[in-house]
Amino acid sequence: MAIKIDRKVAHLPATGKLVVSGDLHGNLQDFLCMEEIFRRLYERGENPYLLFLGDLIHGQYNYTKTNWPQWIGPYYPDESPKIVERLLELESEFPSRICCLLGNHEHSQIGGIWLEKFSDRFEFDAADRLETFKTVFHRLPLVALTPCGIVFSHACPSLKKCFSIDNLASVSYEKDYNTLSLNEIIDNEPLGVLTWSRLATYDDANRFLTSLSDGKNKYSISICGHDAVEEGYDKPEANQLVLSTSYRMQQEMKTYLCLDLSKTYADVTTLRENHELLPLSSQ
Ligand SMILES: [Mn+2]
Predict the structure, then answer these.
(1) pLDDT at 243
(2) Cα of 198 from ligand 1 centre, angstroms
């Protein structure tokens, strides 16, 4: 079994374990921690897959170790280019087991909206590899579907229209969004919404999940990153979970997700602390 990527949609298999990380923003140590969790499962013969929810890149550039504010969590240097390189190494070591979704920060490097607060250190630090990295960002899927009933995206599915799997697979990253305002890109369905939105109602998420469901697969939960929630995860609605693994997290609250792909998860109560939702720091 393998992760199958059909254009901008990743399809996870129906067996094995899936470990999921939220936003990292250049935190190489936390990336390596997720890698270690994946490797341990692999060595134990658990048939694991590793999914990142996007925003691997763009760490803090305006703070150093000496003026690092406490609200960001423990100090870390921005090692964004090393993370992308490590992702590529992992992908070649474990073909079809590693997947990263497109976040608004990866998108900003290939025509997505660019905000002043984004770090152009990335382009500086990765100048010699930038074209390679852009090719990588162009192929990152927008959503990941699991037969266990969960759909993953970087940001919340506050879509007002219905989209089929083929609609999502056909999304193009070629357009230049830089002339749009933040509000305009959030109105831009589905790409702007699924990389930028911080809030979806129960009905929005339900419409999204239902329009992707078919006779074979029924999707009941939307999981995204993008926002930092203090507790490590939030369940804003019965059909939505927000996961915060690294960025802007205090060490002991950093949370990752581990799913059994052969199970069915019907609503967010089935995602339990210390079972599916696990502390990164105890690894
Ligand atoms: Mn984001």
Answers:
(1) 98
(2) 9
